[in-house]
Amino acid sequence: MTIFTSSQKAQPTVALFVSDLHLQASLPRTTAAFLEFLQIHATQTQQLYLLGDIFEYWAGDDDLVTPYNREIADALKALQQHGVQIFWIAGNRDFLVGTGFAEAAGLALLDDPHVIRLAGREIALAHGDAQCTDDTAYMAFRAQVRQPAYQQQFLAMPLAQRKAIIEGMRKNSQDSNQNKSYEIMDVNADAIGQLFAQTGTNVLIHGHTHRPALHVLGSGESQRLRYVLPDWEYDIDTPRGGWISLTVDGVLHRFDAAGGEIG
């Protein structure tokens, strides 16, 4: 299945940024799109940044025994062996990814947020869920499950039990989100301002909200740019997805589900 076409750009690509693929075996077209993206586009860059929720959920690195998960890890490892550096920031769905998966996939785990210095730019990277501070119920849940003691206790359970617990959490989350407004589930402006201050940058790339856009904040020397990555879904009549690239001249480019550049 061919979804993307490789196009020659005036400037070489040095980094690609994607997030919120929510990969799972029940979405074969989305999976195929990601594997094709790796082969066509990611092989043409120096670095690939995976900014969270790459998997629909991750129950622990011992779940690499599942053939689907191993297929994704092997595809990333092949890209790394091709000479591409791969970096990972945890999302709210796959924060249990650890060193076992990182080694199997040939990637490096990064803290959230993380600042890169590349192509003459300083860019802050984040998943984005930590800035959704208006969703107080989620923030309380996030604080609990990100504690090392909680994770250690959870990962000590049998894999099947962990998966059953996660399925229950996903169902509860879906039910709860139906009663929340988009504004509550979006990032908080003050939290974004704090993130810019914390990182000392004027460019931010994040995902999580599934509301792709380029937000221009302020003007002149105080202008800040917030790029929001799209989620991926190719198993529907009108596919959605996309990524951001950084070219060697320091310019950021946004691409849609078909690989067309967004103005």
UniProtKB/TrEMBL annotation:
Q: Residue limits of the Calcineurin-like phosphoesterase domain?
A: 16-212
How does this protein lie in the membrane? Peripheral membrane protein
For whether the record's keyword set contains Manganese, the answer is yes
Q: What is its main location?
A: membrane
Q: Which amino acid positions bind Mn(2+) 2, per UniProt?
A: 53, 92, 127, 208
- Compartment annotation: Cell inner membrane
Reactions this protein catalyses: UDP-2-N,3-O-bis[(3R)-3-hydroxytetradecanoyl]-alpha-D-glucosamine + H2O = 2-N,3-O-bis[(3R)-3-hydroxytetradecanoyl]-alpha-D-glucosaminyl 1-phosphate + UMP + 2 H(+)
- What Enzyme Commission number(s) apply to this enzyme? 3.6.1.54
Give the co-factor note. Answer: Binds 2 Mn(2+) ions per subunit in a binuclear metal center.
Binding positions for substrate? Answer: 92-93, 135, 173, 177, 180, 208
**Keywords of the record:** Cell inner membrane, Cell membrane, Hydrolase, Lipid A biosynthesis, Lipid biosynthesis, Lipid metabolism, Manganese, Membrane, Metal-binding
InterPro entries referenced in this protein's UniProt entry, alphabetically: Calcineurin-like_PHP, LpxH-like, Metallo-depent_PP-like, UDP-diacylglucosamine_Hdrlase
- Give yes or no: UniProt keyword Membrane: yes
Pathway(s) it belongs to? Glycolipid biosynthesis; lipid IV(A) biosynthesis; lipid IV(A) from (3R)-3-hydroxytetradecanoyl-[acyl-carrier-protein] and UDP-N-acetyl-alpha-D-glucosamine: step 4/6
Q: Which residues bind Mn(2+) 1?
A: 20, 22, 53, 210
Q: What class of enzyme is it?
A: hydrolase
Q: Which HAMAP family match?
A: LpxH
Q: Which family does it belong to?
A: Belongs to the LpxH family.
Q: What is this protein called?
A: UDP-2,3-diacylglucosamine hydrolase
What organism, scientifically named, is this protein from? Herbaspirillum chlorophenolicum
Please name the gene that encodes this protein.
lpxH
